[in-house]
Design brief:
The chain is built from 10 helices and 10 strands. By secondary structure, the protein is an alpha/beta fold. β9, α8 and β10 form a beta-alpha-beta unit.
Length: 309
């Protein structure tokens, strides 16, 4: 796999404008994108991960957490983060992939690969993992629960953060975390719940990460939830190449577009953008550690530095 610029291709779908937007005005205080997928080729003129990171740096996005969703992309994420100072990695099997792996008899092997990758340098999170009842019907849910609990164990065994994928499964995700025991640093990636879920997460000390969806005109419920999130539990992300924030909804997303989401959140909360940025940056480092904790390796294949928490 090595230095491949892209591992997968995003489907064009029905998007009419597949060009990358112009960059926003830079943030005065830098933040981090704590969930992105730079392994994707997207748009009419795909951008490689180094250009993504350069563009992000130019607008005040200091670093990213590159997230894997299967063995291949998790391995790519770990390899790129091991040598790129602006990138940390998260590794996991996406919940929607688990039923097929279970039917093929390869789920245990895939989870063993993720457990091994979790020990790599600059891998700071296990995720995205969780439950998705939107795309997976009842016949595949046992596999999702099995994998979710395995990922929780991997995160706790390695002292890593946990990134939750939760779609149409709020109650079941919460029940699982409470029953099994959530890792100390648990993040609801692309938070999609209401005020009630936000208050419950706050009670448990779980972090909530908001994506470009919070800027969508039809996302009033999500903005209501944002209002009750304790500031010390607030994170921000792109989930690129998906969920491009207003005013560029529908076009390819990238970490350099994160300032739109940060400014939208600050405006809704009635707070200063720089104050919110500083708070989010501090929260992000509390969850994942500093991007400088483990210096990237010149040749990540020759040495395995211990994780530093």
């Amino acid at each position: 796999m090595g230095d491949e610029v892209h591992v997968r291709q995003r489907e064009a779908g029905d998007r009419t404008d597949r060009s990358y937007p112009a960059p926003p005005t830079p943030l005065d205080v830098p933040v981090y994108d704590n969930h992105t997928h730079l392994e994707y080729a997207d748009g009419d003129s795909p951008i490689g991960y180094l250009e993504h990171l350069d563009r992000a740096s130019s607008v005040g996005v200091r670093g990213v957490v590159q997230v894997g969703t299967d063995v291949e992309t998790s391995r790519w994420s770990a390899e790129m983060a091991a040598k790129e100072p602006r990138m940390l990695a998260a590794v996991a099997i996406h919940p929607n992939d688990t039923p097929e792996l279970k039917r093929a008899g390869t789920l245990d092997d895939s989870l063993a690969e993720i457990a091994a990758l979790a020990k790599r340098p600059r891998v700071r999170a296990v995720g995205e993992t969780g439950l998705d009842f939107f795309r997976t019907d009842e016949s595949g849910r046992d596999a999702q629960f099995e994998a979710f609990e395995a990922h929780i164990r991997i995160a706790k065994e390695n002292g890593l953060a946990l990134q939750i994928h939760d779609r149409d499964a709020h109650r079941e995700v919460v029940e699982t975390l409470l029953r099994v025991g959530a890792p100390e640093r648990t993040v609801f990636h692309c938070f999609s719940g209401d005020r009630e879920l936000a208050e419950l997460c706050a009670e448990q000390g779980w972090y909530m990460s908001f994506a470009g969806t919070v800027t969508f005109k039809n996302a009033a419920t999500l903005r209501d939830a944002l209002e009750v999130v304790p500031r010390q539990l607030l994170l921000v992300e792109t989930d690129a190449p998906y969920l491009t924030p207003t005013p560029n909804r529908g076009r390819p997303n990238a970490p350099y577009l994160l300032p739109y989401t940060v400014r939208g959140m600050a405006e809704h909360l009635g707070t200063d953008v720089s104050i919110l940025s500083a708070l989010i940056a501090s929260n992000t480092e509390l969850v994942y550690g500093s991007w400088d904790d483990e210096p990237p390796l010149a040749d990540p294949g020759t040495e395995a530095a211990p994780n530093v928490r």
